[in-house]
Amino acid sequence: MRRLRALREGLFSCGGCWSRPPVPEDGGRATESVPAAVPTLADRVTSLSNRLQDEEGDRAETYRELERVLQGDDGRLQSAVLSRVIAAASRDMRAAQGVTEDVRTAASDVLVALASSHFDDVMYELQRHMRALGEISEDFVFVTLGKLASSYALRCVPFVGMTLFALQTMLSQVGSRRTLRAVCGVLEQWAKAANTYLRHWEKCPFPRMGEAQFCSSVSPLFCHVVGSWLGCEEEEEVKQAVLGAMAAMMGLLLHEEKHRGRVWEQLPWLLGQYQQVQDTSRVTKGLSYFLEILGEVKIPIPKKKVQAISTAVHSQLSDESKQPSEEHRSELSYCVLLLARVCPEHTVAFLHSQLGSRSEAARVVSLDLLRALVRSAAAEGGQSLPLLVQAVRTVLRDPSRKVARAVLCFTKELLSCSVQSCSAWDLVAHVFARFSQASVRLAQRNLSQAEAQEEADLQALCLDILHSLDVSVRGMTKLLWPRLLQYVVPAQYTGTLVPLSRCLRELAERRERAGHEDGEEEPGVVAFRDRAKLPTPQALLARLLVVAAAPHAGGGCGVAALRLLQALCGEIHGAVGTVWAVKIPFLLQYLEGESESCLDSAEWERLLLEFLRTSLETIKSQAWTMGLSFELSQQMGSYPQLSREQAFLYKAIGMSLAACQHVPYVRGELKKYLLGTNYLEESEREGMISVVAGAAESHFHLALEVVQEFGACMEERPVSGAFNRLKEYQEGKRAWTHMALMLAYSQIALCAPREQLPARVEREIVGHILQHYRASCQVLGFAFSTKDVQLKLSLIRSVAEVSRAVQGAGGSRRGELCYKRELLGTLLGFVKAEPRDCLASPVRQEAFVAVGHLSKLKPSLTREENRNLLDQCLQSVMPLPALEPAEEEGATAANALPVQCPHAQTMGALGELLTALLEEELTSSWLTEMLHVLEYWLTSAKEWERERALQACAQLLGAYEERFELSGENSFGPFGSMVGLLAPLVCDSLATSRQRAGACLGHLLRIRGKTLETGAEEDEVQPLCQRL
């Protein structure tokens, strides 16, 4: 007791001292009113102790309430009150009979709470009972001692010797399993208290106690437990208690060298408990505690012990039958982390060896553990990081998706540590490779749903790594620049372009700020640059423009590509900086807010090609332009046929050839595409046409000459035997070639300079188009009437494009085409040949468009010729069968849409043709004749024919109304006759016919109003039409 009194002041200074609250200067007297008295700590404790003494209410609940009071107020109690509480709690805690387990536990907890402010009094009480133990039921004394050591470790240190000595004298008397568990709890907590003191002894006010003092007290107990209790009990709770005591005592004995031999001898027993106990998490906690102490004492650990610990922990993580909880897995990983701090090389070597295991789970666990070691290794300077990277490299080609994911997680952790090491950054290449591999597998579409999801998850993880990549690490600019730049051009990395663009833009900015002097380079940087094949400036420009051409593909990479292009302007060519500073922001602004469905693809493509043209004009280097043409050709095979990217590449090649003034090179490239094209493939045919037409913008005569030479050689190419010629025709090779050349000629005409076209359009363009058309209609040299829809469409498209080109070349004057009547006859023949019972092809629609363009050229047709032309076109459209409602056929609206669209498009093309014919002679008399041609169909007995005729009539009258001022007429004579023709139709059986008849009358009224200078307001006519 004297020792307790002597240590009072020191102990309270460790745990916080109690001080009396300051007394107010007025002595606590109230000045205005006397508030209700607040119960003091002594009052509440006294009240509760009285309830215990009088045995009022639930005794366990009273103890719990008392515990809450003591925990909420650390004030000191009067001696009498304190003694009453300690006596009551001690009595109930040790009671053998008549007291429930719940009450005994609550009484023990009250003593622990009371020790916060009266530690020596509580400890005296417990030590007194320790020396007087004799009854087996007093195991709660041990339990409470364990709780005290757990809660007040440093305060318990002066009592370690006497407590452990008392335990030593009574170990032989322990008979029940309950008491054994309680004693083991004391051993565990008091050994841990000693370890805590050795770790933080400087925080204690009393003289330092050495390791030997603690070890000498624990050693006999350790020997007794090893000799008497290990392996003697089968009860799970006893095993767990012994395990906790052993781990704590082993950790304490590590502090003194003479006891370490016995500790290493018991390590196999500790690891063997993984096979003996049901709850293996307790084994892991004991092992992690032991390894923590081992790291603190900084002593070498035998290699075999490292192997044993690593094997035990690794097997717990990789055994799929055990499936530890997440908390337990974290504790197991923590054990490996602690072991690696003591002996990193042996630990990493063990994990490296496990990466060669046949077990997928073992490999995944090893990678997860290596990942756990990364951050600690980086915090300690990163000396062991190369060992970790070297180990992981051995499984980069592992086919398992789970292993691949673990490798990517390791890479992410490694790169997040901002390491300055070439070996670490080399794993970035694996991220790109894994992304590409997943893209290929997903594109094959032969995976199960689960496998496809795993590949998609791997892709997402790759992107996550690249998005979080920190390129701001000092000294990394020259290291990362060549490593990342090589992934811009290959198409398989398109999906990574958004994070890749960010990284390269940041690096480009750092390079510019540093003037390309970003510190010293590692030797690995120079070596990598020497062996890496970095993209050429032309390859970068070609690739980024192609990506921008499909801005929403690959996760929306178009914006990223343009921003990277602007950042790389200095790398691509020094002359483009000023131009791109204006042009690229304009392109980005155009894309802003434009979704894939809203974007005008043709206009966007035109803007990019114009950007390319401006760039090449700024660069003014023939060699550079030829290099760009070569790179564009090289990248062609990276994209699928008929893709937007491939179509843009062909147009960009044509643009580059147009910018190149080296005529022999341009000639050679044009011949290459004409000869190398597979004319059976649509994408290659269209691509060749784009190249030739693009080059014709600056090399019109050259392009025309090369195409003519190719066509002549094709006709001269011998094909032995009639059978071979017939076979070639059936395969379509010659026919597709002829069709491609027809379209090439018409596209050349569209792209040709205006001033150069008129001189060569008749004989060398239209003449060759007709020549190739006739050649396609021959077999064995004999002409026949073709039924090939594609051949018809090719000629129709060619005629339309040449007509547009001639119109454009004529400027304000009307263009002239001597082949006009021949071409019109051919097109009308196509229209007549179309079946009258269905829209089997778009021939009618396309022919109407072509006839409309052709009609605008000289020589003009007579009124009778135009009337006949109109009549033939109407006869091909009006008799088509009516469209049945989708509901009547049991079809959905979605199924009906493909049928309705060709009809609507054909009627729209007919309306454009009517407008073009009207413009041939913009007079009311010609309008009247056109309506007389329509009159037959307006009075048809078939309601769908009347409906179509009214639609055409409305289009015609609308066109005349818009152009009435241009006619120069002051009157509209046919007003009455037209009203008489159309008025009865407002009572038609079809609602659409009634509305269109009303629309026609509205046009007539407005035209009439213009002649009378009164006008008919739109809001007067439109409501009437809607009511019809």
Topology of this structure?
Layout: H1 2-6, H2 8-15, H3 41-53, H4 59-72, H5 79-94, H6 101-114, H7 119-131, H8 139-151, H9 153-156, H10 160-170, H11 177-200, H12 211-229, H13 236-253, H14 257-272, H15 281-297, H16 303-318, H17 326-342, H18 344-354, H19 360-379, H20 385-393, H21 401-416, H22 422-425, H23 427-444, H24 449-467, H25 477-485, H26 497-514, H27 523-531, H28 537-549, H29 558-567, H30 569-572, H31 577-591, H32 601-619, H33 622-634, H34 644-659, H35 663-676, H36 682-696, H37 700-716, H38 722-731, H39 733-751, H40 758-776, E1 778-779, E2 782-783, H41 789-810, H42 820-833, H43 843-855, H44 863-877, H45 893-920, H46 924-938, H47 943-962, H48 964-967, H49 975-982, H50 991-1012, H51 1018-1027
Antiparallel strand pairs: 1-2
Protein name: Maestro heat-like repeat-containing protein family member 2B
Domain MROH2B-like N-terminal HEAT-repeats: 55-250
Domain MROH2B-like HEAT-repeats: 254-919
Task: Describe this structure as you would to a colleague.
With 1028 residues, the protein is mostly helical. It has 51 helices and two strands. A two-stranded antiparallel ribbon has the order 1-2. A hairpin with a 2-residue loop joins strand 1 (778-779) and strand 2. Helix 11 runs parallel beside helix 13 (236-253), helix 35 (663-676) packs antiparallel against helix 36 and helix 42 (820-833) packs antiparallel against helix 43 (843-855). It is elongated and about 135 Å long. 41% of the residues are buried. Mean pLDDT is 84; it is low at 1-34, 518-531, 780-785 and 886-898.
